[in-house]
Write a structure and sequence with these properties.
Chain C: This is NADH-quinone oxidoreductase subunit K. With 480 residues, chain A is mostly helical. Helix content of chain A is 77%, strand content 2%. Chain A has a two-stranded antiparallel ribbon with strand order 1-2. By secondary structure, chain B is mainly α. In chain B, 75% of the residues lie in helices and 4% in strands. Classes of the chains: A mainly alpha (480), B mainly alpha (629), C mainly alpha (106), D mainly alpha (178). Chains in contact: A-B, B-C, B-D, C-D. Chains C and D meet through helix 1, helix 2, helix 3 and helix 4 of C and helix 1, helix 2, helix 3, helix 4 and helix 5 of D.
Chain lengths: 480, 629, 106, 178
């Protein structure tokens, strides 16, 4: 058994869901996603026991593309994140009715398939294929099942699609150039071994940067984000913010930094600065958003800015903190968007000014929402704190000002999140009735919160899982 | 060791268990049971603390407990571990002790609130975090508690969450604290990178053993840590949240915003005394800020009419005095004042709570008066505490405050003067409060008058205990023969020897301080008892009083400078930069579109032209391939 | 058997083909009558075919001729379809001047 | 370089080549310049025949015959039929703008110069036309090659023709007016 099993399960799941019909689709999808999760856990055990679970075989001979899936700690951690979030996301959608549900759930599984592939691929072109494949389902999900005015939505979604696609083209160019240098091989090990001049590295780095900066997004390439998050159905938003953003961040660590380390070192300050600018900018913009989902989108922008800054420090702490924070943010942002969805199900609005006074009617929901909000502002004891602390620490090792400026997130973050919480949940009892969470909703929240709290106090399993692979990557970065 | 671990866990986890029970089953258990569970949880912690205290005093050795790795950073390994030494156990004693009393008090005080179980769960959670803060073996565990108590403070200030003003106050407290937290974090980063540890014990050895320390950097770290302390302990410039925090229920004000949480800053500075000792410049800053805070808060306290606001500013002022002592390196003096302050300030708050409870929520002193007869126990306990805080001899506050002023006098005369003035003002406004509340005629409505009564036993019992403690608490550190100094001695590197001898100067200073206190009381007596003045209503306040009454407009200034600018920036970013960037991206699309539109015109549809161009292109390509080499 | 190219020279065939090909191009450009354009295309095709055969002889290899054979097949198909299209156009438009065919106009 | 046969000492083959070449080029030109499409078609037939003559000269008899059958026979008949079907004559000719003619002439000269320049520039190895003596272009040999080596393309050619036939029929069928 190796990692391709997960991909196969997900792909079969996608088709099975599609053919199972509208009524059964959601359950079938949940079943397959859980199966994939179970499979990945088994694989994780095997990996920890030292069994080789990677795959490499030739796929296309001319040009030389290998079907290479490399499962190291980092990849597995991201796969686990994807596969743990997918069932939660699917389960969270149980309260909604979707037209043409079979396609909807099929697309979700297909997207999980593509994203898992991205995290595992160890061949440049295979990786690129998965990377682009992941874009297609979300395009349809956002376009067909999204909300709001159809024209506006189309505009936002098409912009997102073309923008990310255009960015990825730079990456493709970089890969083709790299494979020319590596005698036609796209394999990641061969690319790692390349010794490029600093000029070449600069351009390669920049090409990767365009792809990733748009995907992550780093300011000023973020303009697609808030609109798409707002227009997409919540499931789509969760997939986008919970997992897809992490594809960009993961790729920075996996592909960009080791392949062009000289450029990364030379322009360290600029890229960390961009990340931190994102933190401050995102936090400030989030302050005065009127739409709940948009606010969360900008908070996402701020958080991923910090993660990106951590990755670009090129230190073990920075990378480790970034990965931890990626996972933590994945969970917390899914939870928060879900909370927004729960509110929307009852009130049919996400406009913050129209909400308020929910706490008296729904104490359970309020507590859960509050815990998520607190996790999002990185209260110690939550997983996010572990990540944020590590990242900020690594920034402080580069330059104390980075830590101070990046640290403003804990002030501004608290400000906009609590402000939002106050206006959405507190205040005079709302005139509209708000039923407390249902069992289904409660389970989704409870799982997310349990994960956040557990790893908040005991992040060692994840740290131990990712550290060896991050060290390997750092060795590649520092080989000169 | 096993035993110690279990004890430590019992100590920490009992309140947490209480929290869990109250969260999940509180509503179905009923109010009394819920309150009892909450109180019991803290009481058990108190008993455990007593055991530990006994152990520490007999063996004199600190107990260290390591649970597991928490965060791994390349050069730092942070454990989740506890350190139970003299300082933390001392702190625990009054945290859990006063905590238990306040829990007991709350059962009665909050009995009419439908969310009583929630209140108790928050209180228990607070105690849990406070214990974590105190017994953490390294800075990061302290930080868990540090932020945790901030969270509980947020929850409890906003306990009556239907009122958005209260929610604003809660939010403000949390955010102000977070500003300090950032400083604390940065301080931790610097210390972590300098010494590769955040563990107190290791850090102490590392600093003691270090040969060439980067002192400027260490000072910077100390300054950052002090900013953290400023946030939590409400010092200038981060003090404005504390008076607003009075929006919470009164027991909360007593527990969190007077006795325990706000002293966390002092705890942290005392904990890291070996760091601050190496940064004399920062110590000066601390002393100056402490003195200024104490004076500014005292002046504001002079004219406040809300009974809890007076106490809040008094707290800020007293905390300022403690920092004054810390700034001079007199940690044990500060700790002493923390303890006595905890006693009498908790008592005062609880007493004010009793008054408010008796008047069904009225907090304005202008509408009180003459409560002495209706609420005798409340009156007497509050009187004792007021005497203590005013520094009247032989009450606890006298000893601790006197030691602070004495220390100040030895180091810096101007700061001594500032501190003394603040003390005189303290005596004045405390007795202003007493006279306005308990003497003369009742100024409230007839209906309130009708319902005036002494509070129940559950409320008066804690008051009495605290009053006793406020009276005799000073005995733990008598001048010249201080049990406290000896107890805390293992913690400090410097030997606090200079206060030991009592000379003429000292006695003179004591006399001056006593006279000052009495002077303050006398002025209050003349103004509010003899002349029977009642503060004017809000509209008629003018001149300097108005400035003081409005707290020097600090809130407004902060609002204008920070809040408004950030919000304005946010709107600017949202409306201009965001749309601008968006237009830019769409602009790329539009350019492409326009190019396509222009390019379309080349496609005339005339095949002849196409062919002509085609042939030309063919010529060009062919001649390039074959002829150009 | 004697190689005929000994007497004529491959370059003469090349020049003949080139001229023929250019005449084809000229015809395509010069005439607007679709049928004549077609004929010009046939001339171009034949120029190439001729060259193929000449080179086939030059190399003494039948491959060139085989290719010509296929190109004839394609040409036949092309003409058949092309003329059918022309007929259809003529039927609809009443003219076969290529100036009328401007559907490609952007 | 262009080797102009010395007409005085020309061999028969050379004379025939010159003659055929002249006819080929001349008729090709006439095809284009004739105003009447039917004349064009007839000139084209002559042109094709002369090309068939070239094939014969190169000893490719089979190809020559196929050429005559396909081009002069089938294709030209098609052309003639089409022309007659459309009933085109000189009156249909549109007046050609001067610019078009100029463009055509320019392209003609340009491409001619470029191509000739290429051939001169690339210096073909002239001379040494060795004859292996093997038979490589008789019907027998061609047939073997076609049906062995090129069998698949050969079969595909038949499919192509079939498809072309069906397409032609479909295209030229009159659509029923609804």
């Amino acid at each position: 058994m190796n990692v391709s099993t997960i991909l196969i399960i997900l792909l079969i799941g996608a088709f099975a869901t599609y053919f199972s019909g509208d009524k059964l689709a959601s359950k079938v999808a949940l079943l397959f996603s859980l199966a994939a999760l179970g499979c990945s856990v088994v694989l994780l055990n095997n990996y920890n026991a030292g069994v080789n679970i990677s795959v490499i075989c030739n796929w296309i001979t001319q040009p030389k593309i290998a079907f290479a899936l490399n499962a190291d700690g980092l990849g597995l951690a991201m796969v686990l994140l994807t596969l743990a979030l997918t069932p939660i996301i699917i389960f969270s959608s149980f309260g909604n009715e979707y037209k043409n549900a079979k396609s909807f759930y099929g697309l979700i599984l297909f997207m999980a398939f593509a994203m898992t592939g991205t995290f595992l691929a160890a061949d440049g072109l295979l990786y690129y294929i998965f990377w682009e494949l992941a874009l297609i389902p979300i395009y349809f999900i956002a376009l067909i099942w999204g909300n709001g005015d159809a024209d506006e939505r189309r505009k936002a979604v098409v912009k997102f699609f073309i923008y990310t696609l255009a960015g990825s083209l730079f990456m493709l160019t970089a890969f083709i150039y790299l494979s020319q240098k590596a005698n036609g091989s796209f394999l990641i090990e061969d690319l790692y071994k390349l010794e490029l001049s600093s000029c070449e590295q600069f351009w390669i780095f920049l090409a990767f940067f365009f792809a990733y900066a748009i995907k992550i997004p780093i300011i000023p390439f973020h303009t697609w984000q808030a609109n798409v998050y707002q227009k997409a159905p919540t499931v789509g938003t969760m997939l986008l913010s919970g997992i897809m953003l992490k594809m960009g961040l993961y790729s920075v660590i996996r592909w960009q930094l080791p392949i062009a380390p000289l450029a990364a070192k030379e322009y360290l300050y600029i890229f960390i600065g961009l990340g931190i600018a994102g933190v401050i900018y995102g936090s400030i913009v989030a302050l005065r958003q009127k739409d709940l989902k948009k606010l969360l989108a900008y908070s996402s922008l701020a958080h991923v800015g910090l993660i990106a800054a951590g990755s670009y420090t090129l230190t073990l702490d920075g990378l480790r903190g970034a990965v931890l924070q990626m996972i933590a943010h994945g969970f917390v942002v899914v939870g928060l968007f879900y909370a927004a969805e729960v509110i929307f199900r009852r009130f049919e609005t996400r406009n913050i000014s129209e909400l308020g006074g929910i706490r008296t009617q729904a104490p359970k929901f309020t507590s859960m929402f509050l815990i998520l909000v607190l996790a999002s502002v990185a209260l110690p004891g939550t997983f996010n704190f572990v990540g944020e602390f590590t990242v900020l620490y690594s920034l402080s090792q580069i330059n104390i000002w980075f830590a101070i400026l990046g640290g403003t997130t804990i002030i501004l973050g608290a400000y906009y999140m609590l402000r939002m919480f106050q206006h959405v949940m507190l205040g005079e009892t709302n005139s509209k009735t708000f039923a407390d969470v249902t069992l289904n909703e409660g389970i989704s929240f409870a799982v997310i919160i349990a994960v956040l709290l557990f790893f908040g106090f005991y992040s060692k399993p994840i740290t131990d899982l990712i550290t060896p692979s991050l060290e390997t990557i750092l060795n590649v970065i520092n080989k000169n | 060791m096993e035993m110690d671990t279990n004890l430590a866990l019992l100590l920490v986890l009992t309140p947490f268990l209480g929290f869990l029970i109250n969260v999940f089953f509180g509503k179905s258990l009923g109010k009394t049971v819920s309150g009892t569970i909450g109180t019991l949880a803290v009481a058990i912690s108190f008993i455990v603390t007593l055991l530990l205290f006994n152990q520490i005093t007999t063996t004199g050795k600190a107990i260290e407990v390591t649970l597991f790795d928490w965060i791994q950073i390349s050069n730092l390994k942070i454990n989740l571990g506890f350190l139970l030494d003299q300082l933390s156990v001392l702190w625990l004693l009054f945290v859990t002790g006063i905590g238990s009393l306040i829990h007991l008090y709350s059962i009665s005080y909050m009995h009419d609130d439908e969310n009583l179980h929630k209140f108790f769960s928050y209180l228990n959670l607070f105690v849990f975090f406070m214990i974590t803060l105190v017994i953490g073996s390294n800075l990061l565990v302290l930080f868990i508690g540090w932020e945790g108590v901030g969270l509980c403070s947020y929850l409890l200030i906003g306990f009556w969450h239907k009122n958005q003003d209260y929610n604003d106050a809660a939010k403000k407290a949390f955010i102000m604290n977070r500003i300090g937290d950032l400083g604390l974090l940065i301080g931790m980063f610097i210390i972590g990178s300098m010494f590769s540890t955040l563990d107190y014990a290791t850090l102490k050895t590392a600093i003691a053993g270090a040969s060439n320390l980067n002192l400027p950097l260490l000072s910077l770290a100390a300054l950052c840590l002090f900013i953290g302390a400023c946030g939590k302990s409400a010092q200038i410039p981060l003090y404005t949240w504390l008076p607003d925090a009075m929006a919470g229920p009164t027991p909360v004000s007593a527990l969190i915003h007077a006795a325990t949480m706000v002293t966390a800053g002092i705890f942290m500075v005392t904990r890291l005394n070996f760091v601050f000792d190496l940064a004399p410049d920062v110590q000066t800053v601390i002393a100056v800020i402490g003195a200024i805070t104490s004076l500014v808060a005292a002046t504001i306290g002079l004219v406040q009419n809300d009974i809890k606001k007076v106490l809040a500013y008094s707290t800020v002022s007293q905390l300022g005095l403690m920092f004054l002592a810390l700034g001079f390196g007199a940690y044990e003096v500060a700790v002493f004042h923390v303890i006595t302050h905890a006693f009498f300030k908790a008592c005062l708050f609880l007493g004010s709570g009793s008054v408010i409870h008796g008047l069904h929520g009225e907090q304005d002193m202008r509408k009180m008066g003459g409560l002495r007869k209706a609420m005798p126990i409340t009156f007497w306990t509050m009187l004792i505490s007021s005497l203590a805080i005013s520094g009247v001899p032989f009450f606890s506050g006298f000893f601790s405050k006197d030691e602070i002023l004495l220390t100040a006098f030895h180091h810096s005369i101007p700061l001594y003067v500032v501190g003394s003035v603040a003390s005189i003002m303290t005596a004045f406004y405390m007795f202003r409060l007493m006279f306005l509340t308990f003497f003369k005629e009742f100024r409230g409505t007839e209906e309130q008058k009708h319902h005036l009564h002494e509070s129940g036993a559950l409320i008066t019992f804690p008051l009495m205990i605290l009053a006793i403690l406020a009276t005799f608490g000073g005995l733990i550190s008598l001048p010249g023969n201080s049990w406290l100094n000896e107890y805390l001695a293992p913690l400090f590197t410097k030997v606090a020897g200079e206060e030991q001898h009592l000379g003429t100067t000292e006695y003179t200073l004591m006399g001056v301080a006593v006279l000052g206190g009495l002077l303050g009381i006398l002025i209050a007596y003349i103004k509010y008892f003899k002349q029977n003045n009642v503060p004017e209503s809000d509209e008629n306040i003018t001149g300097l009083t108005k400035v003081l009454y409005n707290k020097y407009y600090v809130d407004e200034i902060y609002d204008a400078i920070f809040v408004r600018s950030v919000n304005g920036l946010s709107v600017f970013f949202r409306d201009y930069i965001e749309t601008g960037l968006s237009t830019l991206v769409f602009g790329l699309g539009k350019i492409t579109d326009e190019l396509a539109f222009q390019g379309k015109k080349i496609q005339t549809g005339s095949i002849g032209l196409y062919l002509f161009v085609f042939v030309l292109g063919l010529c060009a390509i062919v001649s390039y391939i074959f002829l150009a080499q | 058997m004697d190689n005929i190219l000994n007497q004529i020279g491959i370059e003469n065939y090349i020049f003949l083909s080139v001229v023929l090909f250019c005449i084809g191009i000229f015809g395509v450009l010069y005439r607007r009558n679709a049928i004549i354009v077609f004929m010009s295309i046939e001339i171009m095709l034949n120029a190439v075919n001729l060259l193929f055969v000449a080179f086939s002889t030059y190399h003494q290899d039948a491959q060139g001729q085989v290719f010509v054979f296929f190109s004839m097949a394609v040409a036949a198909a092309e003409v058949a379809v092309g003329l059918a299209i022309l007929v259809s156009i003529f039927r609809n438009l009443g003219s076969i001047s290529i100036d009328n065919l401007k559907n490609l106009k952007g | 370089m262009i080797h102009i046969p010395d007409l005085a000492h020309a061999t028969t083959v050379q004379v025939i080549f010159c003659f055929l070449a002249f006819i080929t080029i001349a008729t090709a030109f006439m095809t284009i310049f004739s105003r009447n499409p039917i004349h064009s078609a007839i000139y084209l037939v002559i042109c094709f025949f002369s090309i068939a003559g070239h094939y014969l000269l190169l000893n490719a008899q089979f190809l020559a015959i196929v050429h005559i059958i396909v081009y002069s026979g089938a294709i030209m008949i098609l052309f003639l039929f089409t022309i007659m079907l459309m009933n085109l004559n000189e009156r249909h000719q549109v007046h050609r703008p001067r610019i078009t003619r100029l463009g055509a002439i320019v392209s003609f000269c340009l491409i001619l110069i470029v191509l000739i320049a290429i051939f001169i520039n690339s210096k073909p190895i002239v001379g040494g036309y060795d004859s292996t003596g093997e038979d490589f272009q008789s019907i027998k040999v061609l047939g073997k090659i076609l049906l062995n080596e090129y069998m698949v393309p050969f079969e595909f050619a038949s499919i192509l023709l079939l498809v072309a036939m069906i397409g032609t029929v479909l295209l030229s069928k009159k659509e029923k007016l609804k």
